[in-house]
Amino acid sequence: MRTLKTILPVIMAAVCCIQVMAQMPNSRRESFPEGSYSPVTNINKGSYPRVLSDNKVMFRVNAPQAQNVQIDLGGTKYDLQKTGSGAWTVTTQPQVPGFHYYSLIIDGVSVADPASQTFYGCSRWSSAIEIPEAGMDVFEVQNVPHGEVRTVYYYSKVEDSWRPLMVYTPAGYNESKQDYPVVYIQHGGGEDHRGWMEQGRTAQILDNLIAAGKSTPMIIVSANSNVQSRNGGMGGGYSWQGMQTFRSELIENVIPFVEKNYHVKKDRKSRAMCGLSMGGGQSFYIGLRDPEVFANVGVFSTGMFGGISGASNFDLESEIPGMLTDTQTFNKQFDVFFLSCGEQDPRIEYTRNIVKKMRDGGVEVRFNSYPGDHEWQVWRKSLHEFVQYLFK
pTM, whole model, 2 decimals? Predict the structure, then answer.
């Protein structure tokens, strides 16, 4: 009997070799559909997938020995049809602009597409396709001064190991003697410290906003919140108790490392915390319960208010004591408190309802929603808006 262990290397080798061949110029190969283009997430511009003029995506996979080929694009599976040359093709439904994970499924085995760049998301390495949105050039590299993104390592006393951080410093940081404010930005579940800097395009957003005079120059620190303490406890979970492992990591290890090694302001009003989904929950609890550390908090697409399994009957006062019973003090503690969510996200109505409760109780909270589901285009827009409010 052939097992997954025995067939996976064969599938990977075949797909890899065949996809590379498909990228090579070949006069016998069919021409690309008129008006189509290669997304920036392709490794080679002369390859598939191709984005068509109506935002449909055409995939072409050369796998003559395969019995069945599918594309899993953002959770929707498409069956490819085999042509006489041994290539498999399909054209998807129109896709909304933004960043979309996808995988090849060949004879039941899900693999990344060797023709695409890979990104860590959904708890695995996945291929992705980027479909630009008209009018959102702020997410693209432009002819402006560029900052730097560095991967550095700090020692975690919580995990008793060396751990990575990705740090964005604005243009001019290396030559400057000034101290900068800092945003501590958190990824979602199934992602890590790379998400915001790679999928989220943090550097492009900040470079362009700073150059346009719409944002204060600042440092952005992206930590990996998948922390396991020495006693086995994991960070995460939509509760104050569930946040304690990562709270210790952030406050006792990450912030001191940054403040020792970078030119940063060290007062609470010069620190912000924000994040998406799981990271939004972390920002809500840690940011709002530690006002002596953070004066600015952004919560993007969190599910703790509802819209996900296990989330119900969220009590603002019990989760953030004083928010509704001593609202005047709460408001004075925070310069910026911002919530956002995608308009097609199952979390949207719960988020709108909780914002209404906050505002009815006198809480000063900013809120915005954007077209899209639980995905990166919404979170890019959330960051783009949030940073413009900060450190004024």
Answer: 0.90
